[in-house]
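FW: tagging you since you asked about this chain on Friday. Here's the raw sequence from the shared folder, copied in full. Didn't touch anything.
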Amino acid sequence: MAGPLGHLVPSLTIASGRMIIVVGLSADGILADPSAVAEASVVIGSRRQLGLLPEPAGQQRILLPSPLRPGLADLLNDLLAKHDDVVVLASGDPLVSGIGTTLIEMYGAERVSARPAVSSVALARARMGWPAESCAVVTVVGRDPSLVLRELAPGRRILVLSSDEHTPGQLAALATKAGYGQSRLTVLGNLGSSTEERTEGVAETWSGNAPRLNIVAVDAIGPPFGLRPTSSWVAGLPDDAFEHDGQLTKRDLRASALARLAPVPGELLWDVGAGAGSVGIEWMRAHQSCRTIAVEASPERAERISRNAARLGVPGLSVITGRAPGALSGLPFPDAIFIGGGATHPGVVEACLEALRPGGRLVVHGVTLETEMLLGRLHQEYGGELTRISVEQVDAIGTFRGWAPLRTVTQWAFTG
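HL: got it, structure written out here
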């Protein structure tokens, strides 16, 4: 079963009345709900968290498992069969990139009670003097730091929840490579503790050290839009923003397709016959919770899609190397599908129509007569919108200029 964030949710059942209590604590061990922890028969947390607390007689202390999600499911199922409630410790606010979010995905909000302490994000905003509405928050805890690249724009303020002490250096290198080497970085370490520290510097000359627990405040300084157009979240990035071998949905056609695919926060796109992955990448750039599965038969192109996705700030894009329709089997059902290549391959369009959710959007592009005839039949049978798109660009004709036409594309857009 797919959860609200697209993860697979275990089939988990808690006996009536039994709860998971998630208690936040500060960096120096001040609990949001001391009585809940003191009265619990079982407390689960990291080694650092458990080490901050006194241990009441008879209380069972258990370390968080690794890997977290599958190990936590097995552990909690066993404990909740024996105990009325179990306490899980969290750093700061359990629902700010915390374990509380994971537990709610697994068991549902009615079985999880969160007791928040002041989050590290709130403390970081206070230290920087950045109002909540003036900055973005990105977590790279257990994630690819390239996620931050999507947020980079001149004047943008970003708070990055670090994975460890290496994150600030990684962010500095990424920002510099992206043309934001003059950005100011402020590393806020051990926020809320007696050992709190602050280190400042510039991305391109960054050499600062950081404690393991830190947040990086990025004050982005970069080139204006005209020199760095990949800052835009609106569909239609320049073609040269993507590494490609010619198999690329060009800028104007990509913008048209995405307008009809209509990205919505949290929704999933299948990018079938993905080529360079441009449509799926721009779908994910539309909102941080949008997700894409790109299906590409060529292993070389599949690797290229992953590189493009990381460079453009959406490293979580999933790439399946294989040919549709076989490669579509077993994938989570999509909210929208783009077929950029291979529509005439037997069974591809049929499999996509069958997989599409109610209200889902399907957009198919074709440049050959065979694909155009197929799309004509599909429009006749299913309705939707059938459009021929011709784009011409100015090119040199000797010492003069003239219009050079690109291949005309037939586009079928259908809403299920």
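FW: The two ends are 22 Å apart (CA to CA).
HL: agreed, and The mean pLDDT is 92.
FW: great, closing this out.
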